[in-house]
Structures are given as structure tokens and as C-alpha cells.
Fold this protein.
Amino acid sequence: QKEVEQNSGPLSVPEGAIASLNCTYSDRGSQSFFWYRQYSGKSPELIMFIYSNGDKEDGRFTAQLNKASQYVSLLIRDSQPSDSATYLCAVRTDSWGKFQFGAGTQVVVTP
Amino acid sequence: ETGVTQTPRHLVMGMTNKKSLKCEQHLGHNAMYWYKQSAKKPLELMFVYSLEERVENNSVPSRFSPECPNSSHLFLHLHTLQPEDSALYLCASSQDWVTPREQFFGPGTRLTVL
């Protein structure tokens, strides 16, 4: 079983709509959760992170955690063509802070 | 230079060559990482250094040899690689290893092994 799983996509989203991405993780002891955006040919850049104690909203992005079901989601409101990228979920799985990444979900925002 | 830089950006090498990848961070961070990114696969953590000491080695083949001479520089020495080692190699840094909040990634080195 993969430790962090994401739907590879592509997830096609009309411009202005909400993109919803999910990431499931296997380790119940996971403490922090990260969403990175990676444009084609570029390196990952952090969008936001949340700890196990709550959700977070930052501009058009919202990260939500469901500990009971062991998944974390990322919502992108008012999607723009510039949001077209691969979104990587990362989970910090133990007290030593080791990051486990998912394979990423490709998002395509269509005008 | 700002952030995390990596050189070279592209590297083509034969299986008998020896080469090195270089990473430098200008953020004053104490932890540095090497990741391997292959197509459609998750980022694979290879090595972690904290304050110039290796704290994580994820069963990486010995043909990959890391070196961290100081907290700002990280190298990955390559020798007798295999074609399946072709990938994007990413360097990252974070403020510290024990309670990292965010990793900052370099642009990566695209490695092709012939």
C-alpha cells in the first residue's frame, strides 16, 4: 500500500469553477500536511500546509483535513488557467519530520 | 543568488562516467535534502543532512554518494549509473530537520544516463 495516494488526473476544471483535489495517507500518526504546486519543467513550490488541528484558508486555496478518513483535500476556488499544474500532496509521517509525497494530481483549467 | 540553486541543470552521462551534482542554499537553513523525481512517480527522498550530518538514507544504491561540506552546500556524486537512474534530481532545504515547516526546492538537475 502506498503511503500517500493521489488521483493522477488529469482533472479538467472550467475557468472560474472550483477544483477539488484529494490525498489519502496511511499513517494515522501523521501530523502535518503540505500541498505543493509544480508547473511542467519546474520544481515544486509550497502552496500551503496545515497541522492536524485544523483547516486553513489562504486566498483562493483551502486545505481541509479529515483525520477519521485519513485524507486531506485542497480546494481551488475561481480556478484560473495559471492554476494548471501538478499538485503534490506531502505528509509528515513521523516525529523525525520525514516527508512522504504523493505522485501528484494534474489539474487543467480550461478557458 | 537567492533561494536554492542547483548545477548543472541538465546532465547526460554514460554508465561509466563519474559526475557530481551541486546544490547551494542561500536561506540560512540547517537541513538539506536530495530527492529523485521520476515520471508519474512520487518524489523519492534519497538523503537528508542536518547541520552537515546525514540523518536519513533511504536505502539508496551506493552508486549515489552524498557530501555535505557545510550547511549551505550539498553534493551528489554519481558513478556507474544505470539508465533507470535517469530522472529529475531535486535539492531542497528547510529551516531545520526536527520540526520542518516548509521545504524550498531548487530547480533540479535533469539527468539522462545513456
Summary: The interface with chain B takes residues 2, 4, 8, 32, 34, 42-46, 49, 88, 90, 92, 96-104 of chain A (CB under 8 Å). The mean pLDDT of chain A is 91. The CA atoms of residues 34 and 49 of chain A lie 4 Å apart. The radius of gyration of chain A is 13 Å.
